[in-house]
Structures are given as C-alpha cells and as structure tokens.
Amino acid sequence: MKPSQPNKLPTWLAQPTTPVPRAPRHQVNFLARNQRHVQALLARLAQPAPVPRATHWQLTPPMRLLQLGLMLLVISLVHSPVGLWLLALLIGGQLLLLSPSQLRRFIVSWALSSLLALSFIWPSYWLAGPSTLLLFWGKSSLLLANAQYYRVTTALTDFLTALKAWHCPDVIVMTFAIALTYLRMLGNYLLQTMAALDMRTVAPTKHPYRLIGSLFGQLYLKSYAYALELYAAMEARGFNGHYVTVPTTHVRWRDYLVVSPYVGVLLVLILRGV
Amino acid sequence: MHIPDNYLSPATCGTLAVAMTPIWTVAVLKVKVQIKQHRETLPMLGIAASLAFLIMMFNLPIPGGTTAHAVGGTLLAVLIGPWAACLALTVTLVLQAVLFGDGGILAIGANALNMAVIMPFVGYACYRLGQKWHHEKLGLAVGAYVGINTAALVAGIELGLQPLLAHSASGAPLYCPYGLNVAVPAMLLAHLLVAGWVEVAFTLLVFQFVKKVAPTNLYQTPIRTNQRPWLYLLGGLVLLTPLGLLASNTAWGEWSTSELKTMLTQQHVSTQVPQGMVSGLHFKALFSDYAIAGLPVSVGYILSGVTAILIFLLLMRGLQHETQPTK
C-alpha cells in the first residue's frame, strides 16, 4: 500500500540547524590541562619509583631528614665558589649511587627547576651584576639538587617516621599520613568529575568559572563524607588518639658519624660569623 | 607566593620558623579542643590538606591567555575553622616543599606565616565582620582579596629586606637581590591585579555551592562566653610593660636621622641619610618617647601605658552592644 502523503519530518529535524559555536581555545584547554596535571600527580602517587637502598651506611629516616636540613643550611651559609664546588662534588658523588633511570629522572626534574629559578633571578643581572647572578643561581641549583635527591631516595613512609622520631605532635603526623593517602583518592575523584563534566558539556559554558563552584564544592562535601566514614572506621579499629602505625627507629652510632661532618662545618661557619 | 630556598637568609628563615612555633602550638591545642567537640575534625584536617593541595594545583584561565591558581586560605578557614586551616595549610606547604619541590624547605616558616597564618586569619576576620554586618558574601570576598594581598605584601617585605639584612662587604646581596622597591611592587601588582581576583572568584563560588547544598558543613564559630583568658593576658602584658625601661638602645627601625646616619656610615652602606627621611614629615607628639615634662622617665612611661589602656577600654566599652537585663 502506498502512503497517500509522505511522512512529515518533525520541525526540529526539518529546520536547518546552525552549528554550535566551538568554545574558545583557552576554555577547551582549561579542563584538559588540569586533567593532565591531576593525571601526572596520580601517576606519581600511584607508582612511586623504587627507592634505592644502600647496602652499607644506610641512614635512619630521622637522620636523613636532619642531614637534608643541615646540608641545606650549609649551602645557604657558604658564599665562596670553592666551597660550593666542594658541596657540588659531594652531591655528585651521592648521585652515582642512583640507578640510571632514577638518575635521568633526577636530571630532568633538577634541570627544569634550575631553569625556573634562573628565570626568576635573571633580571638581577641588570641590578647587581653577573657575579651575584651566577652565585645565586649556583647556590639555588645546589639546594634544589639536594632537595631533589632527598625526594628520589626517600619513601613517603620514611618521611612520616622521621617526623614521628623528631617528636612532631601526633595530630600533625596523622594529618600528614591522611593527607598523603587521601590526596590520591581526592585527586582521582577530581579527575573523574572533570572527565564527566567534559563529556556532559555539549555546549560551551558561559564562563569556565561556573564549573569551579560545583567542582570544588562537591569535592569538599565528598571530603566531609570521607572524614565521617574514616573517623568511624578509625574508632571501630580502636583508635585512641595516638599515631602508632609508624615504626620507631633507633639512631645508631654510624648515623651520628655521617651527620657529624655537617655539624662540624656548620659550627665553623657560625663561629666564623658567616 | 611560595618562597623558594636561597631567597631568604638562614637567619630570616630561622627567625620566622621560631616565630611560627608558638602559633603552631596554639593551633594544635585549639584543634584538639575542636576535635573533642567534632570528632570528624581529625581526619578532616588531613583531607583538607589534600584539598588545599589540589586547589593550589588547579589552574584557572585568566584574561590574556595565561593561568593562575587560587590558594584557598580564606575558603579553608571558613569551611573548617581558621586554626584547623592553619594546620592543614602548613601540612600542605611542607608536603609541597619536601615531596614536590614547590617552595623552600628552609623557608617553611616564612611560607607558613604568609599562607597558613596571615591569609586564613585575615580572610576569616573579614568574613566574620561581614557576617556580623549581615553581608556575609561581601565579607568573604573582601576577606579573600585582602587576605591574599596581605600575604603577598608580607612576602614582598620578607624578600625585599634581604639585600639590607645580608650583603657582602662590597654591598652585593647574598640572598634575594631585589630590594623593597622591586620586591614589594612585583609581588603586590601580580596579586592585586590577577591572583586576588582569582582567589575571590574561587572562594565565593565554592562557598556559595557548599552553603546552598549543605550549609551545616560550614564551620560554626563557637560562642565565646569566657573572657577571662583575655583579661589575664591583658593584665600580664600590663605588668610586663615596665620591662621596656630596662632597654637602653633604640629599638630596631626606630632610629633618629642622626642615629641612622651613624649606623649607615659604620656599615659602609652610605654616608648620607635618605633624602625622604630628611625632608619627610616630622610629627611632634605631645608626649614624645613617653616622657612627660617635669616627671621622671619611668613615671611618664607607666602613666602613658595606663592612659593608653584606659582609652582602649573606654573605646571597647563604648562600642559594645547594650545588654538587656533579663526579667
């Protein structure tokens, strides 16, 4: 049977549609760029690079933290190029213990942060001359190298152990532990929310800031719900307000031996009135 | 605003870390009280620290094609309370410095003072004022803007003082080479024009969302009934006032032009007093240096102290609301 008249299309299909204007480039990139940042953070937190363990002369975590602090202090106080050179040789020698992959990671990260430091300090060339610029940059790079070396060679739990050993209040140590654990969880939630927003957004938002309120507001409310559940779980497991999950470590004589040269140099620098 | 290592001298870093110690101690004690009332505050501290981390990592687009990030100091103070925000932000700053290389390890004290104390407390004070005057959102916006800019100003001053505090015999700066005339405008300009507005927008949008969806999750300021600790503190300070009489030298930064000239000459900085100080305003106070004509210095000092306290007490009394007696 032949239809008497052809089927009419609905009006919304019959009318020509104007294409939806694309969001400006910076608006499209805004969520994507942040997604990349969060992904990088999650990758770093999820798969931390294996920490190389020295077979001999392995310092305890509290001493490693002390060593880092003393080393940074010594570098800050030394103003002679020869002294800085010697300190650079020391960190260079330590770097030899790293595996090739970790060394490459160290170099990339250190080079980037050093270049960033240079960009901040570059205008001082016209204010204070090249010698100040070079000395400042050299010292900054050395400080960054030491901090980066600590990061590469220290596990997060070792950092908590060191804080506990140095009599940091339980509230603070626990806050660190929870922050490190939940950073990954909240980061994951933020990433998923951004991905959901990205997929649901078929037309450009009037302003990218409109998303921020719901994005971080939901993140806060989710955090609050997590906190309630977490406390209930902690209480159920017999939590009594003390942080005891971190293993206690005993400082050995060789730890003092390793740290003593730094203390000696520091005392000399202070007594010389540098 | 994260000050890296080597921009501040170790003496400055040490001084600011020591200055932060009592603040951290009070924060821990205050938070312990808060935990007793609301148990969830304990895990919330850690979660708020990670939230602050994510806020500082999240880049927002700004006109001109570049990006900026909020700090969230005022927002956290409003959400979990200023003392808890102080601890959470400190933890975030330590994590950023030690584990992620953002900000200095030696400069933790300075960064914590700027971002974990000044920003949340200034912001929260403005928010409370706004709440009192029934303009909560306006107070929050002003708080976020003033908080971040005050923190930037202090950071600028800390950096700008370095060439004066630490320099070689030839006058070359040993740490941050930018003086106050460069550091303060550079820090303030960026925050007044861009970062401050980003902070305002971020704080307001998230606050509005939380207030609309779950208003009970906002931090409720405890009603203060006991004023006794403050009275003890004030009384103690009054008793300690005569200690000032023991000091013989002029306080740092309160030098007269002749004293300043002597010091500048001794330290080989300059042989002339800055022109602005010579030709600037010279106000003649009624009781200059707390001295009252015809009276010994010590009596004048104590009388000035008592007078100032009385004036402030009268002002406070005058500004207080009238309490209706209950029948």
Automatic annotation (TrEMBL), chain A:
Pfam families associated with the record: CbiQ (PF02361)
Transmembrane segments: 65-98, 110-128, 171-191, 211-233, 253-271
Tagged with keyword Transmembrane: yes
One GO cellular component term: plasma membrane
Membrane topology of this protein: Multi-pass membrane protein
Residue ranges of the region described as Disordered: 1-20
Main localization category: membrane
UniProt-listed CDD domains: EcfT
Keyword presence, Metal-binding: no
Record keywords: Cell membrane, Membrane, Transmembrane, Transmembrane helix
Superkingdom, taxonomy of origin: Bacteria
Subcellular localization: Membrane
Protein name: Cobalt transporter
Lineage: Bacteria, Bacillati, Bacillota, Bacilli, Lactobacillales
UniProtKB/TrEMBL annotation, chain B:
PDGLE domain residues: 233-318
Key words, A-Z: Cell membrane, Membrane, Transmembrane, Transmembrane helix, Transport
Gene3D superfamilies xref list: 1.10.1760.20
Domain of life: Bacteria
Transmembrane segments: 7-29, 41-62, 74-99, 105-126, 138-157, 188-210, 230-252, 290-315
Gene Ontology cellular-component annotations: plasma membrane
Record has Lipid biosynthesis as a keyword: no
GO terms of biological process kind: transition metal ion transport
Matches recorded under InterPro entries: CbiM/NikMN, PDGLE_dom
Entry's localization field: Cell membrane
One Pfam family in the UniProt entry: CbiM
Membrane-related topology note: Multi-pass membrane protein
Main location: membrane
Official protein name in the record: Cobalt transport protein CbiM
Organism: Lactiplantibacillus fabifermentans DSM 21115
Upper classification of the organism: Bacteria, Bacillati, Bacillota, Bacilli, Lactobacillales
